[in-house]
Amino acid sequence: MKPFKKISQIQRERTELTKSIAQPVNKKQEPVANQIGEKSEDSKANKKLKAIGLDCEMCYTNLGFEMMKLSIVDFETNKLILDEIVKPEGDLIIDLNTHVSGVSEIPSDAMTFDDVMNKLADITDDGTICIGHGLENDLNVLRLIYSNVVDTAILFSENQIDPMRKDPLKKLAWKYLSKNIQGNQHDSLEDALIPIEIVRKNLK
After folding, report:
1. What residue ranges define each of the domains in the chain, with the CATH number in brackets?
2. Cα 93 from Cα 50, distance rounded (Å)
3. What DSSP character marks residue 42?
């Protein structure tokens, strides 16, 4: 078994990773299957966001776990880019997980999965940094790969003995921002914004 990293080493790595958010991403990316918004000559004229905060709320359908709400915030301006209910692709919604998600129904005119993909392709590309908490879950339901990810669940969790145990966003929000979030339900907009604020706090 490999020895655990020393806390000082982890802290150094954490600092370097958070600092990367303040620098332009110049590294040439290799093509990746399902990678969002790959750059092309035609898209260079369209300004893509440098970094975003992202969070999804999920429901359970006959196809398994699916996205039913997506929130995106621009890192540089804190501007809300997207906060929409998304229509699951499954024919049968089994559980909206309302007690956690706060979503009680899916409107008939809700965005579709393809609508979301088109929007993401418009505002992000392979150089966009994706910021969030526990992003593996969000990116799985989005079926996306971002080459540049800042995950506060990995960077700022205190449990150095067991790296698999990650601190909840609620705990990190209180520690770094003195904010009490997530009362009885999650809010994807709040969960997209708080990781941005935590990262920005650690850049100062």
Report:
1. 7-23+38-203 (3.30.420.10)
2. 35
3. G
Instruction: Say what the pLDDT of residue 110 is.
Output: 95
Share of the chain above pLDDT 70, in %: 72
pLDDT digits (tens, 9 = 90+) for 77-124: 999 999 999 999 999 999 998 888 888 899 999 999 999 999 999 999
What are the backbone angles phi and psi of residue 14, rounded to the nearest 5°?
Answer: -60, -45
Alpha-carbon distance 163 to 89, whole Å? 34
The closest alpha carbon to 40, from 126, 123, 142, belongs to 126
How far apart are alpha carbons 166 and 175 in whole angstroms? Answer: 14
Burial of 87 (0-12, 13-18, 19+ CB in 10 A): buried
pTM above 0.85, yes or no: no
Average pLDDT over residues 161-189: 79
